[in-house]
Design brief:
Layout lengths: L2 E7 L3 H12 L4 E5 L14 E4 L9 H19 L4 E2 L3 E5 L4 H12 L5 E4 H7 L10 E5 L3 E4 H14 L3 E4 L3 E7 L2 E6 L3 E9 L6 H6 L4 E12 L13 E6 L2 E6 L7 E5 L4 E3 L15 H10 L6 E13 L5 E4 L6 E5 L9 H14 L18
Parallel strand pairs: 1-2, 1-12, 2-9, 5-14, 12-20
Antiparallel strand pairs: 3-8, 4-8, 5-7, 6-7, 10-11, 11-12, 13-16, 13-17, 13-18, 14-15, 15-16, 19-20
Helix pairs in contact: 1-5, 1-8, 2-5, 2-8
């Protein structure tokens, strides 16, 4: 039976980063993934994920995202790959919206590069947009996007260079812990380790349900569109964006290839009871809100869909992450509930998980992400 210091279950955004940071510290570590590396079955796929220091959700995320930027640049240096593109980010909404109020708090608490502008100035800079006259906007000059599959792939590749073992296309059937460590049963083998890191995305839900932590899985769609005037929307001519409208919150990215621009709705989504039964098709009504957004806010763009992709959000009740030691199993660390805004943090969450696993604590400010806000043991 193989024995490791640590086994990481799930090698998506968070698990791949945890594997890397553990391997980099010289730990005998193995990562187990039920699909392939950088697969399209969970929450870490679709070419791009937004990264920003303009954090309206909670000001305590700022120290984490600043560390994440540093770690992404270090991974780029080690791997030789371009992963983080600072295209600039435009955020727009009504002055009294949660988006704008949250950004005001963010910039009051933290000293970060930004500009507050009105809708007219935003459209002067980027005439591709048609924003409501009553909208306020913020410009985040260091915002942009991550190449999501590349981030996962390079974390795993670099982890392997540091000595990590990786098992793919191998389902985990069960795990258990005792005072001496953890046992894992997969479809192919029995394994043993001193510690376990659970980062299985939507498939981690059962572990949180056991802890009475509310967690919902949502079906989400991403769309790619081309247009005769696509040159106006390519990287360098068009920014990443998030626009809060009366119909919902929508985000998008400049075209980085001939698939065109990518646009999705952050709000909404259908509940998923079983991630293995996720409906991955495209149905009538799935695209309506995004099409309406394009017509209203990007009226010069003539959308012709080139691709769609279905992914999952793992939502907590307060839409903040869950990163903590397992209260019933001291040799288990778990992370989940990234609520549709977690991938940008995966580099630093990997570092946090390595800290918690090896030292039982971390210097990073994760108190607001603990399990204790939902339940006590």
């Amino acid at each position: 039976m193989p024995n490791y210091d640590v086994i990481v279950l799930g090698l998506g955004g968070m698990g791949s980063a945890a594997l890397y940071h553990l391997a980099k510290r010289g730990v005998r570590v193995c990562g187990v993934e039920q699909f392939g590396i950088a697969h399209d079955m969970g929450s870490s796929h679709g070419q791009t994920r937004m990264i920003r220091k303009a954090y309206f959700e909670h000001p305590d995320y700022i120290p984490l995202v600043e560390r994440a930027y540093t770690l992404w640049r270090e991974l780029e240096s080690e791997s030789g790959a371009e992963l983080l593109i600072e295209s600039g980010l435009l955020l727009s909404g009504k002055p009294n919206s949660g988006l704008i109020k949250g950004l005001e708090t963010c910039y009051r608490v933290h000293t970060l590069p930004h500009e507050r502008i009105d809708a007219a100035e935003a459209m002067k800079r980027y005439p591709q947009f048609n924003l409501p006259e009553d909208h306020a906007a913020y410009w985040d000059p260091v915002g942009g996007f991550l190449r999501v599959e590349g981030c996962v792939d390079k974390h795993v590749q670099c982890a392997q260079k540091h000595g990590a073992d990786v098992l793919i296309h191998e389902d985990v059937l069960a795990w258990s812990s005792d005072k001496d460590g953890v046992s894992i049963t997969t479809t192919k083998r029995e394994m043993r380790a001193n510690k376990l890191v659970l980062t299985a995305g939507a498939w981690t839900t059962a572990s949180f349900v056991e802890l009475l932590v509310p967690l919902r899985i949502l079906r989400k769609l991403q769309f790619w569109y081309t247009s005769p005037n696509l040159a106006e929307y390519r990287r360098g001519a068009f920014p990443a964006f998030y626009v809060d409208t009366d119909a919902g919150g929508f985000y998008g990215f400049p075209a980085i290839n001939d698939l065109g621009i990518k646009i999705a709705e952050h709000t909404g989504g259908e509940r998923v009871d079983d991630p293995d039964q996720l409906d991955r098709g495209l149905h009538k009504g799935d695209e309506a809100n995004v099409r309406g957004f394009v017509a209203d806010v990007l009226p010069r763009f003539q959308p012709e869909r080139t691709k769609f992709s279905v992914c999952m959000y793992s939502m907590t009740a307060d839409e903040h992450f869950l990163v903590d030691r397992h209260p019933r199993h001291p040799n288990v660390v778990l992370a989940g509930g990234f609520s549709g805004h977690g991938f940008k943090f995966s580099s630093v969450i990997g570092e946090v998980l390595a800290d918690l696993t090896l030292e039982g604590r971390t210097s990073h400010p994760i108190g607001f992400l603990g399990l204790g806000r939902f339940t006590s043991f």
